[in-house]
Task: structure prediction
Amino acid sequence: MNDHNISLGRAQESALATNKVLKNTYMLLSMTLIFSGVMALVGMSAGLGHGVSLVSSLVAIGLLWFVLPRTANSSAGIPVLFAITGLLGLGLGPMLNFYMAINPSIVSTALGGTGVIFLGLSGYALTTRKDFSFMGGFLMVGLMVVLVAALANIFLQMPVMQLVISGAIVMIMSGLILYQTSAIIHGGETNYIMAAASLFLSLLNMFQALMQLLGAFGGDD
Amino acid sequence: MNWMTIGSVVLIIGMMIFIFPSMRRAVKTAPKGNMSDWMGFIIPLAAIIGFIILLINMV
Result:
């Protein structure tokens, strides 16, 4: 009886900890998305070039690889995450300006589409409580294949290949959203800063890939 | 080759180097999914593909 009470108590504690990670992750994710959106507007209005975009993305990736893992277990991780998301948002400026010039509805549709896909997948993972940890290897291999294809396409410059890559990115990022949400639910991810960073990157990549797909296939021309 | 291309190549190679150890670990340690597990991924994925086709028609 006593053992039963102890295990129930532990289960409740674990559920509370999971809910706390989930709540903090979504709160931090929303704040970083707003901040990144503001920085993207700054990048757009300043008319930044692709060179600045590349440099800000490189700095953000550097922070993500070398600084965030060292600071994620302390409160210092939060400003680092804001710096990363702000730089990535700023780097999005030239791409947004490009698609706004072609057709502004591409940007709004891609933004709305990303939001709907994210909410749908998060809701699916949260309500079904399925464990998607089995997808880890598949998603990482998929990501590596996409990177190899993207590297090859820098030299090949094939528009069709670029669209295939964009389609694959949307699929892989969808899988990563399910994987990450499931990891939070099942206790595989207990750090809300790392969880928010991972979800933010999935959303950003999905948004960019969706814009490319809509820009290529959408419209009457 | 301009410096933008070089920057992009460096970024992608850096990502590949960074992801490789995680990929190896994930392939070795991730549990194997059964048919029902994979269906739980394929069904929402099919819904997303349908949704993207709808978005393309909307633009």
